[in-house]
Amino acid sequence: xxxxxxxxxxxxxxxxxxxxxxxxxxxxxxxxxxxxxxxxxxxxxxxxxxxxxxxxxxxxxxxxxxxxxxxxxxxxxxxxxxxxxxxxxxxxxxxxxxxxxxxxxxxxxxxxxxxxxxxxxxxxxxxxxxxxxxxxxxxxxxxxxxxxxxxxxxxxxxxxxxxxxxxxxxxxxxxxxxxxxxxxxxxxxxxxxxxxxxxxxxxxxxxxxxxxxxxxxxxxxxxxxxxxxxxxxxxxxxxxxxxxxxxxxxxxxxxxxxxxxxxxxxxxxxxxxxxxxxxxxxxxxxxxxxxxxxxxxxxxxxxxxxxxxxxxxxxxxxxxxxxxxxxxxxxxxxxxxxxxxxxxxxxxxxxxxxxxxxxxxxxxxxxxxxxxxxxxxxxxxxxxxxxxxxxxxxxxxxxxxxxxxxxxxxxxxxxxxxxxxxxxxxxxxxxxxxxxxxxxxxxxxxxxxxxxxxxxxxxxxxxxxxxxxxxxxxxxxxxxxxxxxxxxxxxxxxxxxxxxxxxxxxxxxxxxxxxxxxxxxxxxxxxxxxxxxxxxxxxxxxxxxxxxxxxxxxxxxxxxxxxxxxxxxxxxxxxxxxxxxxxxxxxxxxxxxxxxxxxxxxxxxxxx
Length: 608
Prior knowledge:
By secondary structure, the chain is of the alpha/beta class. The protein has a six-stranded mixed beta sheet. It has a four-stranded antiparallel beta sheet with strand order 2-1-4-5, with no helix packed on it. It is built from 22 helices and ten strands. The radius of gyration is 37 Å and the shape is elongated. 63% of the residues lie in helices and 10% in strands. Helix 3 runs antiparallel to helix 13 and helix 5 runs antiparallel to helix 7 (149-166).
């Protein structure tokens, strides 16, 4: 229960007014329910001709020390007055109308209490999804290198859905039932404190048993949700690698692998659901046992000790049965909520994840780039593995610096340190003499444009992909960026021109077209610093020529850091740095490095 209350404490504050309204309507519903069932007493007295009512010949004054006697006497007095004036059958009709009116008011209050819970349920689930998405966009790239995409998708879809189905669907019964239980329990004490105390001896034993089963259910739910993440991860891998699966005729192998995970998930969720489905029959049986025991003890009070009358005992049983339904709902929530809490634990692994790239408390402002980028004694590691070691590099404004080296030499990691996708463990990265850790993250990244090996595009139009991240871009500016990037012609040849949807990740375009759209996006942003990460390595010769031409236009008057595998694309760079095992082992122009007769020359000869 403590974990559940913590969840409510985190997400409930914006919906306090709905909670207050729900509590008010639930109290009203409970009070009306008690009064409506009280009509059973005179009905039974009239039908069975009991002698209880005949003694009420005059109204009694209010007495707090003897409330039960006063209320019973005065009710009997008014019933006797009606019988004397209208007769027994008409009096029954009046009491029936009173019962109908109070029931109408009770059900209306019940409807309003349920209606005011709905904005809380839907709002909290929306807030959790929003917080998850915002957290995902704010976390550093290092977090996602350690997490599977499928697992993150499973937490945002399956786990959030389970929170909605388990925790949020239990909100109504958890806000309503305590009020009903307290109200009905007060009524039971008022009717017969002896019978109620006897009942209380039995109820805690049943409640403990329900709680024990609920704790077992939570442990199984965590395991089942973990297997659901494995299932989603394989689906995500399959969609990304479908071409390879078909090329290697591995459909059968992948199907068997998926079936194994899916069957394991099915077996676990089956156990959870079987245990959950036992909640209603178990609570029904325990409730019946309770009624039988109370019926026996109440019979003793009515027949032997005469401390209760028959009609009042029937009223007591009706109220006791009314309190059993909220208790049964509590037991149902005791099964549902652990499943939701298990999912909440998995969601919190993202929501509570530490963001290691922290915004400085008092960031320095840098509205433009004027002088140079400097790597000063920079070392960086992933976990325990050092990737960069003692890097010293200065990139003056307006110059093009190329980084070359074998895969895994640290080229991409080096450029990722400039926009603070990662933070260095030793040394510092400076822009115009200011450590990037002291700059506002958005201010820093506004100075930088990226063109990557894989053009990252969105399932949207040409226009929205080119203007992505640039607010209030005009039509002329978008078209001009497309022209400079050699993208204007193929955009205008499409069915809806700039409004044409390019498909998921630009799937309706060729590799060269996707790359030119990403260059147009960088051109429109117009950053003073440009990072090119093997921007032409995956293209055919013709596409490379068009993209290289677009890149040369983009690089004019900009400070460029280019990663390249094809050495032919960086011959004109102002300086080339050769990285090997995390260190800069050579630096110079293309001609200077060839004359050194070192690592760069060997790379050049292999490509020639």
